[in-house]
Amino acid sequence: MSGDNMAPVIIKRKKVVGGDGHHGGAWKVAYADFVTAMMAFFMLMWLLNATTEKQRKGIADYFTPTIAMARVSGGGNGALGGDSVFAQNTLPRVGTGSTSLYTAATTSKDDDEARFSSGEEGEEDGAAQDEQFKPVEEMLMGRGGESMVADDALKHIVTEVTDEGLVVQFFETDGARLFDEGANPTPLLKELAHVLVQAAEVVENPLAIEAHTSAYPIVVAENPSWSVTAQRAAAFRELLMTERLAPNRIRRVTAFADREPARRNRMDVRNNRIEVVFLRNR
Fold first, then answer.
1. Domains identified in the chain, total number
2. Per-residue pLDDT tens for 104-156?
3. Position 250 in a domain
4. Residue 65: DSSP 8-state
5. How far apart are CA 69 and CA 83, in angstroms?
6. Across the strands, what pairs with 120?
7. Structural domain of residue 196, as residue ranges?
8. Most buried among 74, 83, 106, 109, by the most CB within 10 A?
9. Are 262 and 270 in contact, with CB atoms under 8 Å apart?
10. Is position 37 within any domain?
11. 188-205 core/surface letters (b: 16 or more CB in 10 A; e: else)
């Protein structure tokens, strides 16, 4: 085969040119500007919705190019609040702001000292009255020696000092009741009332009587807890009068029904109780 019949070899050279070479990443910059603008727009919408008229005026005054800060606008007291630098209580101006600020600070300091002194006196009075309650607790609970109450009755007494005064609880157990059917005091309650009147002679505080009862079953057609506690509170008051407690020492007699249980189980017999509060002298 001769060389004239061979096909010629053609070499094709292809030049690769980037299609985006003429503008590069300019679209990214434009997109970033668009996102920034949208963020600013939504922030503006949020500010318009979340601020008051006074706060918006304060923001507008802050960005006003003609003045550094308005003299009267402060933007309110919220998260975006602030005071004008020309306010009397912020920047002393021509002596007026300084005088007002000093007067306000002095008055506030005097008020704080007066409240602090009053609080100290109140705490001292409360501590003194707590000390007065101790002999009553000792007579009832036998903490300072022999108790005035028999051991079988002592387990029915709980005392507690609160902001209102000394609270003495007489409560029932499964084996010992304070009242028979209705509001008739049992011998146990009569003994507790006798001891209470003797202990009350140690102090001169007024007394408050409160009657509580456990919850009745839901199947009961009419809930008698209100009438029962009212009768028991009145009966205990009469019992104290029989033990020769001065009538003018009783400040109030209250029936709480089953609204303030002492146990989580509202039907627990422990919720049947009489509370006597030795009120603080005001």
1. 1
2. 445 555 555 555 555 555 566 667 777 888 888 888 876 555 556 677 788 88
3. yes
4. S
5. 10
6. none
7. 130-279
8. 74
9. yes
10. no
11. bbebbbbbbbebbeebeb
